[in-house]
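Predict the holo structure. Ligand: flavin-adenine dinucleotide.
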Amino acid sequence: QVSQALKSIARNEHIKSYIQKSNELYPLLLQAAQRFVTGEHKKDGIVTAKELISRGYFISLEYIGENTTDLEECRKAKNEFLNLIEEMGSLSMKQTISLDLSHIGLAVNSETAYIQLLEMAKKANLYGITLMISMEESSKTSDILDIYKKTTEQYPNVGVTIQAHLYRSYNDIQELIHYPGKIRVVKGAYQEPVDIAMSRSKELNNRYLKLVQQLIEADHSVSIATHDEMLIQEMEHRQYLNQPHVEMEMLYGVRPDLLRNLKRKEYNCKVYLTYGKEWYLYLCHRIAEYPENLYSVVTDIINP
Ligand code: FAD
């Protein structure tokens, strides 16, 4: 319930506009958000990316946004991504860009998202950049996978995220291993009906392991995206992490100590970075996912 409430707050246009207009609250919240978000502008993401790359990490950079229903705004978002691709390309950053398809057109219709993604994939391919599609609410899963499949057949530099908490994911992976793109496995951030998804539990961790095993046995490129220490230990024990087509990926600001330790062991380690004016939405997601973060945000606001 807390998680749903926070997501509703994040999407509430009145609250958003109040915060944006508040000269007191806006900078304080932005400062608190910077624990998880690099900043509001592309250059903020690039600066942090460069720094992490120089320390031996891979990076995945997202321009934050989702559920854009206005076609013109979808085009603007796509253009921002195209500029990001060009800038990373000009810096020879052969890294990853993450995106929500609902940011570039899926909330309008599937065809729009597909056409815009194709344009991005073509440009990214020229520069050796990977595009990683995030997974959204279960009502969008089939559309996202359809768009992914059509795109990765033409541009194998496009990958997709799969949520372990959805019961359908095992079958989805059975099919996806026949496509070239990288698969990122996450537990799943959205509240879903109990008949289609499981909640955080030992059962979910077992399911997560099973999906990763499925990909490793198929010799498929995989990004293991979790901060769950027990889960990571088990995968290390099973020798999953030292394979060349496997990487560990964590969110910027969440368990950097854990990722650092894994990098010391010479595993492929990637940091998921974000930037953009919609940082407020992203901050609410991180608090919803782990309500203890609310405490650190409040502390940051009280002691800026
Ligand atoms: P959990 O069991 O939730 O957490 C394990 C431990 O990690 C916690 O005890 C805590 O110590 C730490 N932790 C976890 N989250 C936080 C946090 N926010 N702040 C501080 N500590 C935390 N979800 C989607 O639905 N679609 C996506 O496309 C998607 N992409 C992602 C990409 C990456 C690279 C990552 C890392 C996650 C992504 N997620 C996505 C979110 C994911 O589904 C989970 O909600 C999130 O990773 C938390 O789950 P966990 O695996 O870390 O395990």
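The chain has one domain: 38-275. Residues 167 and 195 are 8 Å apart (CA to CA).
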